[in-house]
Amino acid sequence: MKLTFKQARFVLNKRGFGITPGLERMEALMDMLDHPELNYPTVHISGTNAKTSTGRILAALLASHGLKTGLYTSPHLSSVTERYGLVGWDEGLIFDQMPEEDFAFTLAYLLPFIELVENDRDESLTYFEITTGIAFEWMSDKSVGAGIVESGMGGRWDATNLVDSSVAILTPIDVDHRQFLGDSAAANAAEKVEIIKSGATVVTARQHREVAEQIAAKATAVGARVIGLGDQLHLDVNDTAVGGRLLSVRTPNATYEELFLPLHGAHQGQNLAVAIAAAEALLNQELDAEALRAALLSVTVPGRLEVLNRHPLVVVDGAHNPSAAAALVATLPHDFAYERLTLVATVFDDKDVAGVLTPLASIAGRIILTRADSSRAATPARLQQVLPSSAVEPEIVDVLEEAVDLAISSSLDDEMVLVTGSLFGAGQARQHLLKGADGRAGEPENE
């Protein structure tokens, strides 16, 4: 059976974007495929924020040290193929996004097995389970030397949790997906620490005390080693520089000084430290300092504090939960110079809308409330209801592209336009501003 990319997207999207807990469907599918996810060593990443950024940095580090690396992240901004990357090195970093024909070919190959599982179990695989199956099979087919796999949500019953990861990364854990993971960081952590496998190395960002305790308890229970930022791992320098960060990282094995990372935000310095320790753990060696520096120069993370215009300054960011919004607010005045900030906000209705908007509104001299082209997006009227009373009077523009255009056209050269509140909205704005990105291939079901 052959599929075009358009047909493959249709097959995937008709599964819908629901979430069905349990690993039984994925286990049945991987059994039929003889477990392609076990054909390469894997780094498994979970956490609330910073997973994709950390994964992309780590992929560059591994590639610069000779490992062809497969990368699976989610959600995507514009096309489902963005979830899959093949990262290599040839006198510089090579980051190849999965070609559309590879996506269609891999799904066509998997489809008979998917249908067997669905018929046997009388239930459908979810969108995310299918995209994860594609990742496992594609990486195996490409004979990667390592795979980096980002969990979609949680960890315990996340579709990615079939990997036998020798290295686990836990980025900062806070509250998101309340209806599935609970109303506290500790409840979220109870699910996410389940990616830690027996005998693995766990590299963790700074965490809330109760989260750190759960990580330590899980690691002890399965005989895993923990390398924690602020304990065995240190970020000695994390300064703002022109176009990014200037950093110094100290691991249990080595000190890496005068590193330049072309990403904005102090949190990206923490992501780099975690990625370096994870790379050392997977490679079982100290990193080559020159290869490390060269790799970092090519790192990009679309949709995360991404600058798309200079005059006025236009930044898109996918902050979609309170902790991400707070990190964004803390970053802007340190990393950018601007006279006034116009906030263009769209937030999914199933998120903590007030928790996202409140910190953002506190720094905005002008607010435009809009709605991304998603059934999950809250209406501008709903956003207006939860704006704090101290916020400036908002403007309402129902169509996101029109809101972005209005914000830019009415801003002075020394002002900033910030489009944020949703990864999906950031992707839609990014597509509009870049003029020519491929059409979105379905909603980001695990934002």
General description of the model:
It is a single chain. With 447 residues, the protein is of the alpha/beta class. It has 2 domains: 5-296, Mur-like, catalytic domain (UDP-N-acetylmuramoyl-L-alanine:D-glutamate ligase, 3-Layer(aba) Sandwich), CATH 3.40.1190; 306-434, Mur ligase, C-terminal domain (Protein-Tyrosine Phosphatase, Chain A), CATH 3.90.190. The chain has helices spanning 5-13, 24-32, 51-64, 100-121, 127-141, 178-181, 185-192, 209-222, 266-283, 289-296, 322-335, 353-361, 380-386, 400-409, 423-434; strands at residues 42-46, 69-72, 84-89, 93-97, 146-150, 167-170, 201-204, 225-228, 234-241, 244-250, 255-261, 306-310, 313-316, 341-345, 366-371, 395-399, 416-420. Strands 4-3-2-5-1-6-7-8 form an 8-stranded mixed β-sheet, sandwiched between helices. Strands 12-13-17-14-15-16 form a 6-stranded mixed β-sheet, with helices on both faces. A hairpin with a 3-residue loop joins strand 3 (84-89) and strand 4 (93-97). Helix 1 packs parallel to helix 4 (100-121), helix 2 packs across helix 4 and helix 4 crosses helix 5. The longest helix has 22 residues, at 100-121.
